[in-house]
User: Fold this.
Amino acid sequence: MEMKQFYITTAIDYANGAPHLGHAYEKVLTDVVARYRRMMGDRVHFLTGLDEHGQKIQQTADRAGRSAQELVDDVAPQFKNLCKRLEISNDDFIRTTEERHKAVVSRILQDLYDKGEIYQDTYEGYYSVRQEQFVTEKEQVNGEWPELFGEVIEISETNYFFKLSKYQDWLIEYLEANPEFIFPRFRQKQVVEFLKNPINDLCITRPVERLSWGIPMPFDPGYVTYVWFDALINYISAVGFGEDSFNQTWPADYHVIGKDILVPSHSVYWPIMLKASGIELPKHLLVHGFWMQSGAKMSKSTGEAVDPLDMIDQFGADAFRYFVTREMNVGQDSEFSVQLFLSRYTSDLGNDLGNLVSRLLNMGSRYCGGLIPEATLHEDPEAELKAHWESTVKEVLELYEGFQFHTGLDKTFGFIRGINRYAEIRAPWKLAKSEEPADRETLKTSLATMAEGLRLAVILLKPVMPGISDKILGLLDEKPADRWNPSTLVWDDRLQGNTLGEKVILFPRPN
Ligand code: MSP
Assistant:
């Protein structure tokens, strides 16, 4: 038997419009975890995709005077292209209109129906068109429907219902027994709070007269499946539910989602759908916060609107990935602004990392014939930098393991600044003016030490900035870092004699 894969997913995005910052961020976050796990030696399976059924899609298509299928076929390449532009290393991309998905949804529904977990009933009451869900007067605030619900209409409708309520006690116990099911932990508390009130059974159909854009109920062609019931199943339909290979991938290690879709869909519907179907639960949900954009619609100077995704084309995937990962404390919300982006870009990437690379390449070519020299001295400045590296790598790996990527990057850049400080102390550009043999030794040592520090730092940056990491390693005449086996992260003299690359500007100044 092959080792089970580390299986990680993103939410599947609604295919009713162009991708935005929230979509991009979630893919980057998931990709950073996926790449980190691969570097730690796991076999990773990374799934992302699109949610293509339901009323939202139908309404957008209607407004545009086209069919829902045309709409989603137009949107899908935009999302696939976003993954490419962002260097997302997903292994699969699922669309819920695909046959492989529809077949599994039908199968799960039929099975639950046969087991008596689904029943028919008539519902009379209120329905929120925007949220595509039935709502009750309890949800009114001061006698008004919350803005969030949009238009609320009264309907009487016969539908099929899934027996959620039957599993409420089981779910409460499950969460008690698995306090690490949801990361960060405070999010799990929100679910537990939610479950303190009785939950209703879930209406999982829409009559075709009202909505036809969905997966038909296998046992009643008069209905299509409610979009959430359909969408959640993507996590198992994409990895061959019902086939022998399914257990190589399922259960998912992490479903990465935003905070808005934790309760009730991912924390109540999904676990209960799986439990009722006799399928194992995912191991964890990783819940991120939201990007706020109060100032983002303003531009740098002219006042025209700026789409955060434009930053990808202007500054490159690595810079974008760095910014969102450095800025967002996973779980909290964060503010996107062009100013903040530019300041990270110029100070961290340009001044700290970019300048280190230019200095090294420059001096290497001027003073050492473009070869990385030998470090013959081990004095205080070298020992301090090496000790700084040793504490950095230990801390950063722990932080990455706990999804604290923003702090991990902070520490890594702290080390990069440490290399620059080391360069200031040794000042090889001054030593180069001296004829003394001792100064020559110090000069060679300082360039070798800077190069080694840089090599190690960019290996740590690889999950976040895969392109830049490989590029800088290439400039040091090293192969890309694909695995973090212990020896790659140890300070050594492997670079000695390597040929430095041509001078490049990695992070050009914005114009
Ligand atoms: N289609 C559903 C998910 C079904 S998963 C079985 C959906 N789609 S969505 O397009 O609205 O959102 C997709 C993901 O993007 C969600 O995880 C959501 O939290 C995330 N984001 C949407 N806006 C966001 C921000 N402004 N910031 C960060 N992430 C946000 O919900």
In short: The pocket of 5'-O-[(L-methionyl)-sulphamoyl]adenosine is lined by residues 11-14, 22-23, 25-26, 51, 231-232, 234, 257-258, 260-261, 290-291 (CB under 6 Å). Residues 296-300 have pLDDT under 50 and may be disordered. The longest helix spans residues 338-368. The radius of gyration is 27 Å.
